[in-house]
Design goal:
CATH superfamily of the largest domain: Glycogen Phosphorylase B
CATH topology of the largest domain: Rossmann fold
CATH architecture of the largest domain: 3-Layer(aba) Sandwich
Shape: globular
Structural class: alpha/beta
CATH class of the largest domain: Alpha Beta
Number of strands: 14
Low-confidence stretches: none
Strand order of the largest sheet: 3-4-2-1-5-6-7-8
Helix content: 40-55%
């Protein structure tokens, strides 16, 4: 089957969209399908085109056996500014259409959202080629920008909501990883029979515990021997609310062997560093973004893996992809979040769930595991078992591939 994948983000960019779509594309190719990816020129997250690339009308390349056609887009370092971000998304929406014509007629079109604007691209391409369209909905737009006050103008708000419904109606099938997001879309009048659930996935053969000997070597290399490590690895934005880590570190600083490590980049990182410096905290360490292949080593040296999401109605359906990677590593989690991610932790018994912004609760959860090594091992084992059973990449993608073949016939 000839499949066209539309995604603004793709390797060598970092981020969940790039990783998810590259893993899907590579899996489908290995199963014998003809896959072409339409992607933007790599610039995420810094808003600067990657070394080795130059903006052109279009560019062909192959990464890990995947054919990619890159089309131009408006690149900006001000991606947290709503107007500039819209220019970024809309420019790729337009250029991706002619990129698809270069690729030729597909049997099926699959697009990653957000940005939801790719739904318009897919609709145009689908009309021309008479191909079914599948959307991979990972976040609901415009709920988030409306909820946090980015979209305030009533006319823009009404247009955004109309556009969302238009895209969903013109898409043949809508795939969600979140039951909450799916129900929200159904509540807006989208027929239930065009919506389906396909969970997120994790490569359990990559994100797996490493040997104690390798852990010791890596800890020694990083000068972290004899430390009890609470780690966060991922995007550092407003939604993650990681300033709570600074508050927890202050409360627990008398434990000299407990160390908090935050790995990654994002708009809030400098604020966190400044806050930690203000309180002269010695029990927190910041590290830069790490390549995907190194992340399992970093996660392996942690005693606890931490997730926090600031409470908000539009985040109740959010399941950070890092949660599955954490679980697959066989390490206990502390999750301070509400909604579906909370339910996963409760069902899997993969860690301790705490209310967001609950400093005391997070401290108590840390100390429960810190004082009980058996508990740490028991929870970690349950976490990995659950990840293998429900989120293993090969199991999830096998079901997804079978469904795409049914739709594309």
């Amino acid at each position: 089957m000839k499949i066209l994948l539309l995604t603004q983000y793709y390797l060598p960019e970092s981020g969940s969209a790039s990783i998810k779509m590259s893993e899907l594309a590579e899996y489908l190719i290995n199963k014998g399908h003809d896959v072409t990816v339409i992607a933007g020129f790599p610039n995420y997250p810094y808003g600067k085109i990657y070394e080795g690339y130059k903006m052109k009308v279009y560019m062909r390349e192959i990464i890990n056996g995947v054919k990619i056609i890159r089309t131009p887009l408006y690149i900006t370092s001000k991606r947290y500014s709503f107007p500039y971000r819209m220019l970024n998304h809309i420019s790729f929406m337009l250029s991706s259409i002619y990129g698809a014509f270069i690729a030729g007629r597909p049997d099926l079109i699959y697009y990653y959202s957000p940005p939801i604007f790719l739904g318009f691209s897919a609709w145009v391409i689908g009309k021309v080629f008479k191909a079914p369209i599948v959307a991979d909905i990972n976040d609901l737009w415009p709920q988030a920008p409306i909820a946090i006050g980015v979209i305030k103008n009533s006319y823009i708000k009404k247009f955004a909501e109309w556009f969302e419904k238009f895209i969903y109606r013109k898409t043949t099938y809508l795939f969600f990883y979140s039951h909450t997001m799916r129900q929200e879309v159904i509540n807006k009048g989208i027929p239930k029979n065009k919506t389906e659930i396909f969970p997120l996935w994790v490569s359990t053969d990559i994100f797996k515990p490493i040997s104690n000997e390798d852990i010791l070597k890596f800890r020694t290399k990083l000068l972290l021997n004899n430390k009890f490590i609470i780690m966060y690895a991922g995007y550092i934005g407003v939604a993650q609310g990681l300033d709570i880590v600074i508050d927890v570190a202050r409360e627990i600083k008398e434990y000299n062997d407990i160390l908090f490590i935050i790995i990654g980049d994002g708009p809030e990182k400098n604020n966190l560093i400044e806050k930690a410096n203000t309180f002269k905290l010695k029990n927190i360490k910041f590290m830069p973004f790490q390549p995907k292949e190194k992340i399992p080593y970093f996660l392996s040296i942690a005693d606890i893996l931490f997730v926090h999401l600031d409470p908000a109605p539009h985040r109740l359906g959010t399941i950070p992809a890092k949660v599955l990677s954490y679980m697959s590593m066989g390490r206990p989690l502390i999750v301070a979040a509400k909604g579906e991610v909370e339910k996963i932790l409760q069902e899997s018994k993969a860690g301790i769930v705490v209310s967001p912004r609950n400093i005391h609760g997070i401290v108590m959860a840390i100390l429960d595991i810190y004082n009980n090594k058996n508990l740490k091992d028991i929870i970690g084992k349950k976490a990995r078992e659950y990840a293998i059973k429900y989120f293993d990449k090969n199991i999830v993608l096998s079901k997804l591939e079978n469904r795409l073949v049914e739709i594309g016939r």
